[in-house]
């Protein structure tokens, strides 16, 4: 990594090739700064106590240069004019070292919460100018959207596990709380909050889909030229009967769909679990910190296992210490009696009924009397029929006597007896005339027969 920074970093001198002596110096400085690599200069088991594998860091650096040359990570290049030998990364060595450099850059500030907007901007540029490199940039940005979501979710899960480990090892409430709020201020606010609001995939998904549809509706000449240029740049993507342009656009839409439907809900769930776990752990650690000096129960348990004489001696010593305590009265300024809630006054006085017209009250009374006069309850009707059918199984309505107004109402409502559970009313088809009815139908009343069931003796 140190050689990569010197060769391709911001402070690299691209006009001058790196010689072997410069590579050795770079490795020597890195060995001094890295104790893990410098430990190889200490005695090894196969050597004697007074013998070391490398006498100093420079010899160790020369050995590393030879190892990297033999492995193919570095290559020796000779200038034909000056016959000067220089060292440099091979293509495989540079690609291999880039992974470590990129991983180190993850902890630095970078605009990784702008990939959704960068995808939209690159597609709009391709739509306006037809440059296929803009389309390839949009495809690359869409891939970074998924990877960024994965990185953030893994970071949240790792921090949640770190909180659990710290809870198991120590109870430093202030340090853990400070780290939690530092993460929320420096990591959550500038990155995750923007990803869920300003750079939300749901916010720009419709715009990106609209731009892709406009690209699909471009003239045929535009799409043919883009297809030919993409086939030249990406020959591995060329397949019979398959459009490379359509494959790139479909890949961008598929990634956006996965980011919006899968990764974004997963990020929200991970963030919710992280905040819940952090809240639970911090509450528990605060509780443990407050209970750190509450060892009365432990002291009492130890006293129970001691002899009586020892218990008396220790309790007497504790009493002597507590005797020096001073008891004071509370400050009256801090005593406040709660004010009783006053119930709202309600006027319970009833208003007097206004005196109405005599004729109006009489009309109301007459109407109520008429309503009650032509009404008979089901209980009275059942009692009337039960008295008449006390000694027989069937009875015709023509044989029912009418001795009072209640009997008249019972005969008039005889048809409703069929709704009762005890009686069956069946018409005979005959018409009857008497002093009370101008014309009425004849019915036969009989007791309802039930299907035979096991008798059950009822207790009083």
UniProtKB/TrEMBL annotation:
Which UniProt keywords are listed?
Coiled coil
The protein's matches in InterPro entries, at most eight in alphabetical order, are given as: JetA (IPR043773)
User: What is the top-level taxon of the source organism?
Assistant: Bacteria
Q: Which Pfam families match?
A: JetA
Residue ranges the record marks as coiled coil: 146-173
Q: What name is this protein filed under?
A: Wadjet anti-phage system protein JetA family protein
């Amino acid at each position: 990594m140190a050689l990569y920074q010197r060769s391709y970093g911001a402070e690299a001198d691209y006009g001058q090739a790196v010689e072997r002596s410069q590579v050795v110096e770079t490795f020597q400085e890195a060995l001094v700064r890295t104790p893990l690599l410098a430990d190889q200069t200490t005695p090894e088991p196969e050597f004697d106590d007074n013998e070391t594998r490398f006498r100093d860091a420079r010899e160790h650096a020369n050995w590393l240069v030879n190892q990297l040359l033999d492995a193919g990570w570095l290559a020796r290049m000779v200038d034909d004019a000056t016959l000067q030998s220089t060292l440099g990364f091979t293509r495989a060595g540079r690609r291999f070292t880039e992974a470590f450099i990129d991983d180190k850059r993850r902890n630095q500030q970078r605009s990784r919460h702008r990939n959704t907007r960068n995808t939209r901007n690159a597609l709009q540029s391709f739509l306006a100018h037809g440059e296929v490199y803009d389309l390839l940039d949009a495809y690359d940005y869409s891939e970074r959207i998924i990877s960024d979501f994965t990185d953030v979710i893994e970071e949240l899960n790792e921090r949640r596990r770190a909180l659990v480990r710290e809870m198991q090892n120590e109870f430093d409430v202030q340090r853990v709380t400070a780290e939690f709020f530092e993460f929320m201020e420096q990591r959550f606010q500038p990155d995750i909050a923007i990803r869920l609001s300003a750079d939300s995939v749901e916010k720009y998904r419709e715009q990106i889909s609209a731009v892709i549809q406009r690209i699909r509706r471009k003239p045929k000449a535009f799409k043919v030229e883009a297809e030919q240029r993409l086939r030249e740049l990406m020959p591995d993507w060329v397949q019979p009967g398959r459009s490379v342009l359509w494959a790139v656009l479909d890949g961008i839409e598929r990634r956006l769909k996965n980011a919006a439907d899968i990764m974004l809900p997963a990020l929200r769930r991970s963030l919710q679990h992280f905040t819940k776990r952090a809240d639970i752990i911090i509450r528990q650690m605060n509780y443990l910190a407050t209970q750190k000096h509450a060892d009365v129960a432990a002291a009492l348990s130890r006293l129970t296992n001691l002899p009586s004489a020892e218990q008396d001696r220790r309790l007497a010593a504790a009493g002597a210490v507590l005797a020096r305590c001073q008891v004071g009265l509370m400050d009256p300024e801090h005593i406040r009696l709660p004010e009783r809630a006053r119930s709202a006054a309600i006027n319970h006085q009833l208003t007097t009924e206004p005196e109405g017209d005599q004729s109006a009250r009489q009309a109301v009374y007459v109407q109520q009397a008429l309503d009650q006069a032509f009404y008979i309850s089901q209980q009275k009707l059942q009692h009337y029929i039960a008295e008449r059918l006390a000694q027989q199984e069937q009875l015709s309505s023509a044989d029912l006597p009418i001795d009072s107004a209640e009997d008249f109402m019972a005969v008039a409502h005889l048809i409703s007896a069929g709704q009762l559970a005890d009686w069956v009313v069946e018409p005979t088809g005959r018409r009857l005339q008497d002093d009370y009815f101008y014309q009425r139908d004849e019915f036969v009343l009989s007791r309802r027969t039930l299907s035979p069931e096991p008798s059950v003796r009822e207790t009083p």
